[in-house]
Amino acid sequence: MEIPLLHIIDYLVAKYLHHRDIPTHLTVKKIAALAGENKVHLAAYYSDAHKHYCRCKSLLKTGHLRDSASYVEKENDLNEHLKQYLRNIAKDFFSVLTEYFVSNRRSKPVLSLRIPFVHDDDDYVYTIFRQNGNMLPPPFKVQDSQLLWKVRDTDSAQYCNNIPAMAGRRPTQFTHPRLRQECAQSYSRPLVERLRLRRRHGLDPGWNACWIPVDPSQQQASPEHCYRSSLAAPVSIHSSEMPEVLRQTLGLDGDNVACIFGFLTVDSPEYRYFRASDHDVMALFCNFFTPFLLTQTIFTSSISRYHMPKQLSPCLDFLSG
Question: Which domain of life is it from (predicted)?
Fold first, then answer.
């Protein structure tokens, strides 16, 4: 079976290689190998979703799925299957991304793949996979994370290399669902700021107290989860980068419509952890995830697409042949 989305990987990777400087530890050969692995995974991922869709379509015709609840149950089964498959893929790619960061930095970052959804007309995200973190945080509103909010509005990567200073401004320039805002603003007063600079590379109980633990059973947040630097990038694609027939069936008008399917986030307890060149590397790995989240968006309703039509049945008919 021909996979309509496979060539998107080639296009996005080629665009990356053409326009960007390649880090020494992410050689063209290594990127090509990653792209090859990605295509193999995507073929299996897409095939599973397509088979499930065709099976459900057949059951609907024969009357075995008699009501919408039965269909939703089948869709939920597929959604969980695809999410588990995606977690396995994310684990492999996050290992490579971790190698990139630790090759010229002192510590491992916390990497997360987050998926948007809508609840009670509010935009939320949930974390589908997390590496170098002990457990998954609960879902939260996008507006509770100023970084994700900016990414959503600009469709571009955003980062903050001094969270204590930015969170301490009035009005604040950094919010996070686990950050106690009043504590952060008190912490960043001038005297405390000077004391902070003396212990920037050590434990800082004052800053740690500003963070809510990821694990609710803990009384204090672990130091590695008390971030001082954060970066977020969109897992997205522009309509101009899609095949024309797919763009038409999705109902996307114009050549510059951005469809955001998720967010790739990197967090560190270190100051000034990120560099401008990290944006390009993040763009590459976001491109690797894009076809998977696009596939899940097409075959299930579990992902809320920013700037994308909700009704995808014409696309399903096209993809099912």
Answer: Bacteria
Cα(269)–Cα(251) distance, integer angstroms: 43
Peptide bond into 177 cis (omega under 30): no
Q: pLDDT digits over 81-93, tens only?
A: 888 889 999 998 9
Domain boundaries, the chain: 6-159+228-319, 162-226
42: nearest Cα among 265, 290, 298: 290
pTM, rounded to two decimals: 0.83
**Taking Cα atoms as reference points, which of 182, 179, 248, 184 lies closest to residue 214?**
179
pLDDT digits (tens, 9 = 90+) for 102-127: 988 889 999 999 998 888 888 899 99
Amino acid at 137: P
DSSP character at residue 4 = T
CATH architecture observed for domain 6-159+228-319:
2-Layer Sandwich (3.30)
Where helices occur in the chain by DSSP H, the ranges are: 6-19, 28-62, 68-102, 146-154, 163-167, 181-187, 190-198, 205-208, 244-250, 278-299, 313-319
